[in-house]
Design goal:
Arc Repressor Mutant, subunit A, three-stranded antiparallel beta sheet, about 35% helix
Length: about 120
């Protein structure tokens, strides 16, 4: 398993993950997030009001299913971009009879964490 950003929990709260995965809007958002998108782009693609989109993206982030990064590719402007950030979700019964959930991610490449312009900035420094 690849390393995850420190803000992403491999073992998020069971209820948070299950609630997100059973929510129709959240599932629709996850299906659209194959590449980084702004909240506005997500809302338009999913036909969801922007305020609802932000709430759903927050829930998905808390469930460790979505990560975000700031895109500064347009000088003077920045936009938060969101991307689905998991390969699998596992729900299992542990040895103590407790249900556990784990979120595994293969997304560790910097393109999901930094703007594509980051390379240009570091080369100019």
């Amino acid at each position: 398993m690849a390393s995850r950003p420190p803000t992403i929990d491999e073992h998020p709260d069971l209820q948070t993950v299950l609630t997100s995965l059973t929510d129709e809007d959240c599932r629709r958002i996850l299906s659209e997030l194959s590449e980084p998108m702004s909240a506005r782009e997500v809302g338009e693609a999913c036909d969801i009001p922007l305020s609802t989109t932000y709430r759903k993206l927050n829930a998905l982030s808390e469930a460790s299913l979505v990560s975000d990064h700031v895109d500064v590719s347009d000088p003077g402007n920045h936009t938060t971009k969101y991307v689905a950030d998991f390969d699998s979700v596992t729900v299992e019964l542990n040895e103590d009879g407790q249900i556990e959930v784990s979120v595994e991610s293969g997304v560790a490449e910097s393109e999901h964490m930094l703007s594509p312009r980051w390379g240009e900035v570091t080369q100019k420094s």
